[in-house]
Amino acid sequence: MSPSTDPYDLVVIGGGAAGFFTAVNTARLQPHWKILVVEKTGKLLSKVKVSGGGRCNVTHACFDKKEFPLYYPRGASLVKRYIHQFFTTDTIDWFQQRGVHLKKENDGRMFPDTDDSQTIIDVLLREASRYGVEFQLHAGLVGIKKNQNKFDIHLSNGKIIEALHCCLACGGLNKESSFDWLRQLGHSIIKPAPSLFTFNCPGHTLIGLMGISVPVVKVKISGTKLEQTGPVLITHWGLSGPAVLRLSAWGARLLQEKEYRFTIQLNWLEGEGWNAASVLSYFEQHRQEHPSQQLTNSRMFQLPQRLWDYFLTESGIAPPIRFAELKKKDENKLIKLLTDMTMEINGKTTFKEEFVTAGGVDCTEIDAMAMQSKLVPDLYFAGEIMDVDGITGGFNFQHAWSSGYLAALSIATKKDQFN
């Protein structure tokens, strides 16, 4: 099929947060341009809809530009450069100017004060409608060819669309072969790897306590320097929670190489500052002061009762046993479980909507101030298609907003135009 003779000023590939933000901000700056967003599925902003349990974790309340890039396991150098142009404060202002107020929660995550992701979707749809942004759904990208000063964009529905500018915001692609069309344009691809996933430990007795969470646990991958401290949730398949998700992000490459089979160590008492030596000393003191007290009733640490009882059972300590009757070998087992419990991990599970792909377009081939390709004139990038990914907590959405805004600014004003 021949391409249209009337090219679009901008075609954005991907109808998610990054693509939408690129399109509506370009349209605002160039209201007479023809702009098209192409989406392979039948839904727009689907990840925005389900993010944060349906509340949409828009960004993170980190306002230190030196600290902010530290939350990105990959792409931190790119983030470090562009945050001076569009930061978390700019995201908050952008939405507030359009009637959406963001609130901060204790862990730094920021949500619309309606606690409804539809609030974010509605404001983006209104912007698109206001400036006449067009959409084409059920149209996957097959390939892109540069034809002099225009792009020929080949879609899965057989159409070929011409565009003066093209922004790739189609998210993370989980297969290296899915980037072949980008390689044909000359770009290098960093091998994709899953990030932000939970740990599976099938058959382990701990999963019988699914639903129990502990607010501060240190989780370490044995034999490495990788460790994270934070909330841990026991699930019916293994372990989840922020500490596990952050660890999966920082260890994404290594854990992929290990085929998701590895050993972790947990200190369940990290939040109370206990280690093996201090727990042993405390037990000895408690044995002298409360010899007749049953261990199951002691609640010595701020652990859920079911979890405390689990540790006692796993140590061979029956419920009626009192401190004066506690055997040394059982005491040692209990201390080990509390402060240095080991678990064999075998597999991973996608964590709901938080799934992110590490890898993608090599950031060294992208102008960080313009989000423009250094290799192909008028080709831009926004969001997860780049080798940039953050930990959980709003950092990946902030990357979408920042990169989308800078791409829009560059496209609309010809900022840092390719020479």
In a nutshell, what does this entry contain?
By secondary structure, the protein is α+β, with helices and mostly antiparallel strands.
Strand content: 15-25%
Instruction: Please state the average pLDDT score.
Output: 94
Radius of gyration: 25 Å
CATH superfamily of the largest domain: FAD/NAD(P)-binding domain
Query: How is the CATH topology of the largest domain named?
Result: FAD/NAD(P)-binding domain
User: What class do helices, strands and sheet pairing give?
Assistant: alpha+beta
Poorly predicted spans: 415-419
- Cα(first) to Cα(last) distance is 32 Å
Helix content: 25-40%
As for the number of domains, it is: 2
Main sheet properties: 7 strands, mixed
Can you tell me the overall shape?
A: elongated
Count the DSSP helices: 12
Give short descriptive properties of this protein.
419 residues, alpha+beta, 21 strands, 30% helix
Question: Topology of this protein?
Answer:
Elements: E1 8-13, H1 17-29, E2 35-38, H2 46-54, E3 59-60, H3 76-82, H4 88-96, E4 102-104, E5 109-112, H5 117-130, E6 134-136, E7 141-147, E8 150-155, E9 160-168, H6 180-183, E10 189-195, E11 197-200, E12 213-221, E13 227-234, E14 238-240, H7 242-250, H8 252-257, E15 261-267, H9 276-289, H10 305-314, H11 328-340, E16 341-346, E17 348-350, E18 356-361, E19 366-367, E20 372-373, E21 379-381, H12 395-413
Parallel strand pairs: 1-2, 1-9, 2-6, 9-21
Antiparallel strand pairs: 3-5, 4-5, 7-8, 8-9, 10-18, 11-14, 11-17, 12-13, 12-15, 13-14, 15-16, 19-20
Helix pairs in contact: 1-12, 2-5, 9-11
